[in-house]
Input
Amino acid sequence: MDPERARVLLARERKRIERALAGRRWADVGELSDQDEPADRASELFQDELDESLTTALLAELAAVERAEARLAEGSYGRSVASGEPIPDERLEAFPTAELTLEEERVERTQRPTG
Output
């Protein structure tokens, strides 16, 4: 893939993630918790945990962008970090932070322990 195209894709991905992170701030207005109802506290706890989980996922995506940017700077962007095989441009267009070929990722998924 052309390095300039990769920069554009990665910048777009970074911007998307940063916007999503900025929007993840759940506003606790405190109205429901003032009533001190167990159901209200449970709802607030659920929302807090959901927000934390989504934020963690977005931070992981941002770390993937940073790794991809580092590979681009060092000249290894577009190659599998496992095998060095080229990652097809079509995959990079759809998933600019791809670190593995599609086949390598499928194998990795099947080898991951479940549960």
